[in-house]
Amino acid sequence: MTVLPGLLLALVLAFAGQYLSKFIGIDLMGLPKSPISAIMMAIILGIIIRNTISLPASLQPGIRFGLVRVLRLGIVLLGIRLSLSEAGAIGLQALPVIIGAVAAALLIVGFLAKRMGLSGKLGTLIAVGTSVCGATAIVATAPTIAAKDDEVSYAVACITLFGVIAMLVYPFAGHWIFDGDAVKSGLFLGTAVHETAQVAGAGLVYQQYYNDPQALDVATVTKLVRNLGMLLIIPLMSILYHRNHSDGTEAPKWYTMVPLFVIGFACMSLLRTVGDLNEEQAFGFLDPDQWKAIVGYTKHAAELCLAIAMAAVGLGTSIKGLKDIGLKPLGAGLIAAVLVGGVSIALITLLY
Asked: Rounded distance, CA 237 to CA 263, Å?
């Protein structure tokens, strides 16, 4: 199976991250609980290996599988942590911040990109990737505005670089800025970090460092709601482009832009909701202890999937590849990341 070698490498790094977390924090530092995040260690190990060793091409399909398929499975399984009412409440709470952050990125980043001399298409891709759904939004938007391959590559590289930095820094920044409030920190992570994988990683880092799973729950739901912004943003970008161009490109159908893992997450939340309705017997045949055990095992499976995906994120992060981009796209990406983070902090502080 072509995906097996790379997937096994990601799995080994996930477990290595757990081992190093305990070894450094407990064995070396003598603390009762390690202050080192296993997820962060897995990401760092992946980055080190990716940028110091020439990985064979046979590993790439498995790394990609871990980053895409295993990640999505992990996101789906995370739905078991929340009932539909809890997920819906988080989504509604997050909506004003999501709208503000997305609008700021689209309007201001696009303007600044032009001022910096970037092409309108590259500026649009960076703005869309920063505001909505990272590389997924970039790849979906590119054909609707006839973006060139190098423009897509530059935009994805910017999103990857600053998203990984945010994933490693923002959990601590959010905890400090919002004085340990896990809900506000989760809103911040869900609106300020670019990719779904990066948001999940940041939420797990927060959970492991501060022993509070609520930030991961809030961040995940916030990001999934933010992902649905593709339904509006991508057709809008296409319309604006076609006002001045006519080259046969068109926006994809709306239903192709609904991420299936968002639907899967909602289905798992529905399963949790139905299972919790009857306190005596879940689904009419499981006693409370059995249902609780199933929920617990599913949570652990979700976190294992996300750990594998985070190791794959590290293995897919090439620092050398960023040298060819140049300073202007990187500058635009940095401004976009800082801008969205700042707007997120301001709105959360103002509204909650």
From this structure: 25
Q: Tell whether pTM > 0.85.
A: no
Side chain identity, residue 222: T
What is the C-alpha separation between 31 and 24, in angstroms, rounded?
9
Q: What is the DSSP string of 85-139?
A: HHHHHHHHHHHHHHHHHHHHIIIIIHHHHHHTT--HHHHHHHHHIIIIIHHHHHH
Q: Is 92 exposed, middle or buried (0-12, 13-18, 19+ CB in 10 A)?
A: exposed
Q: Residues of 132-169 as b/e, b for ≥16 C-beta within 10 angstroms? A: bbbbbbbbbbbebbebeeebbbbbbbbbbbbbbebbbe
| Residues 160-216 pLDDT 10s | 788 888 988 999 999 999 999 999 999 999 999 988 888 988 998 899 889 888 999
Enter the DSSP assignment of 144.
Answer: G
Mean pLDDT value of segment 216-229: 90
Alpha-carbon 349 to chain mean position = 22
- In this structure, are residues 340 and 131 in contact, taking their beta carbons and an 8 Å threshold? yes
User: What pLDDT was estimated at residue 12?
Assistant: 95
In a domain, 54, yes or no: no
224 belongs to a structural domain? yes
Task: Tell me how far the alpha carbon of residue 148 is from its chain's centroid.
Answer: 25
Q: Which residues 6+ apart lie within 8 Å of 130 measured at CB?
A: 105, 109, 159, 194, 333, 336, 337, 339, 340
Residue pLDDT, tens place only, 78-117: 889 988 888 889 989 999 999 988 888 888 877 877 788 7
Q: Sign of the C-alpha dihedral, residues 135, 138, 143, 146? A: negative
What range defines the domain where residue 188 resides?
68-351
Please name the amino acid found at residue 171. Answer: P
112-137: pLDDT as tens digits:
777 887 777 888 888 888 888 777 78
User: Is residue 15 assigned to a domain?
Assistant: no
- How many domains, the chain? 1
Rounded to 5 degrees, φ, ψ at 284 are: 85, 0
- Residue 51 CB neighbours (<10 A): 15
Q: Is 282 in a helix, a strand, or coil?
A: strand
Residue 123, in any domain of the structure: yes
User: DSSP string spanning 146-196?
Assistant: T--HHHHHHHHHHHHHHHHHHHHHHHHHHHHHTTT-HHHHHHHHHHHS-SH
